[in-house]
C-alpha cells in the first residue's frame, strides 16, 4: 500500500489503498476509520486477514498526515468530508469499519449517507451514554477540554498521557504487542491536533447516538470487550437495540484495544457476523 491524498472541502486527506495487484478480485471494499490519537495503520493488521477485500484507510482529519477540518471537528463534519472523500474515489456500496472514535464517525456516516454504506462494523464505539462506568472517562476528557491549548496538548498527547491511557486499556499479556501499540501511539500522538480531540469529544458528548443509530438501515456488527471502560457492554447493548439490523458481540476478558491486540480473533468474529447478516438479508428478500 502506498500513500496518496485527496482534498475534500478544503481538507487534505492522506490515505492508503490496496491496489488491484494486491487484491485482484476484491468482492468487498472496506473503508477503515481509526480511533482517537491513531492513524490509518491502526486497523490494517485486522483487514490484511480479510479475503477478497480492497482496503481504503485514511488518516482522519486532524490526525496522522491529514490536515484538520476548516470548521469544527464534529461528527456531522467528519461524515460530510468522508462522504465527499468516497465520492472523489468513486467508492460505492462500502463496508465501513471503525474503531472507537472511528466507530462513532462511522455511525454518523451511515446515518447521514445511508446509500453509501453496504454494511457497518462498529468496534468499541464511543457513545454519549451517561452510566457510572463512563464517569472517569468523561471526567478525564472534560477536564482536558477545559484546559488552555498548550496544557490540553500535554494532558492528551504527551508520552506520559499516552502511556497511562494505553496501559489502562491493555488486556493482552503479550509484551511485544503492548510495546508495538505504545510505540505506534507515541508516534501518532506527536502529529495529532489537540483541537480535533477537544471538539470531537464535545460532539460525541452532545450527540444523541440512539437517534443516530435509529436512522441506519445497513446491517451492522457491534463488537466490544467485556472489560472495556470506554465502550462498556451496557453502552454497546443500548446502541444495538436502536439499530434496525445488527448483531452484538461482547468478547470475554477483552478491552478497548482487543481488535488491535487480537486481530485474528477479531477477524473471525466480524466476518462470521457479516456472513450471517448477509444471509438473513437474502432470506428476507426471498420471503
UniProtKB/TrEMBL annotation:
Membrane-spanning parts: none
Domain AB hydrolase-1: 29-262
Family annotation (Pfam families): Abhydrolase_1 (PF00561)
Keyword check for Acyltransferase: no
GO cellular component: membrane
A GO molecular-function descriptor: hydrolase activity
Alphabetical keyword list: Hydrolase
Position of the signal peptide: none
Family annotation (PANTHER family): HYDROLASE, PUTATIVE (AFU_ORTHOLOGUE AFUA_2G14860)-RELATED, MONOACYLGLYCEROL LIPASE
Protein name: Alpha/beta hydrolase
Amino acid at each position: 500500500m502506498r500513500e496518496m491524498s485527496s482534498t475534500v472541502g478544503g481538507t487534505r486527506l492522506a490515505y492508503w489503498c490496496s491496489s488491484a495487484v494486491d487484491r485482484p478480485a476484491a468482492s468487498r471494499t472496506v473503508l477503515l476509520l481509526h480511533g482517537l490519537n491513531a492513524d490509518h495503520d491502526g486497523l490494517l493488521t485486522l483487514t490484511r486477514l480479510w479475503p477478497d477485500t480492497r482496503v481504503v484507510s485514511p488518516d482522519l482529519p486532524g490526525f496522522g498526515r491529514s490536515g484538520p477540518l476548516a470548521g469544527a471537528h464534529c461528527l456531522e463534519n467528519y461524515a460530510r468530508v468522508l462522504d465527499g472523500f468516497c465520492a472523489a474515489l468513486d467508492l460505492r456500496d462500502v463496508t465501513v469499519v471503525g474503531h472507537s472514535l472511528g466507530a462513532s464517525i462511522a455511525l454518523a456516516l451511515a446515518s447521514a449517507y445511508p446509500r453509501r454504506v453496504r454494511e457497518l462494523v462498529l468496534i468499541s464505539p464511543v457513545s454519549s451514554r451517561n452510566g457510572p462506568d463512563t464517569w472517569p472517562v468523561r471526567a478525564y476528557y472534560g477536564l482536558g477540554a477545559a484546559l488552555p491549548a498548550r496544557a490540553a496538548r500535554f494532558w492528551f498527547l504527551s508520552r506520559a498521557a499516552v502511556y497511562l491511557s494505553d496501559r489502562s486499556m491493555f488486556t493482552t499479556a503479550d509484551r511485544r504487542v503492548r510495546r508495538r501499540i505504545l510505540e505506534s501511539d507515541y508516534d501518532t500522538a506527536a502529529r495529532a491536533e489537540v483541537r480535533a480531540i477537544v471538539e470531537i469529544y464535545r460532539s460525541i458528548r452532545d450527540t444523541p447516538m440512539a437517534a443516530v443509530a435509529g436512522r441506519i438501515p445497513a446491517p451492522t456488527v457491534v463488537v466490544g470487550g467485556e472489560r472495556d471502560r470506554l465502550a462498556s457492554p451496557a453502552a454497546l447493548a443500548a446502541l444495538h437495540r436502536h439499530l434496525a439490523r445488527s448483531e452484538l458481540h461482547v468478547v470475554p476478558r477483552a478491552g478497548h484495544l482487543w481488535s488491535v491486540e487480537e486481530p485474528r480473533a477479531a477477524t473471525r468474529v466480524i466476518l462470521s457476523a457479516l456472513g450471517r447478516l448477509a444471509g438473513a438479508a437474502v432470506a428476507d428478500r426471498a420471503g
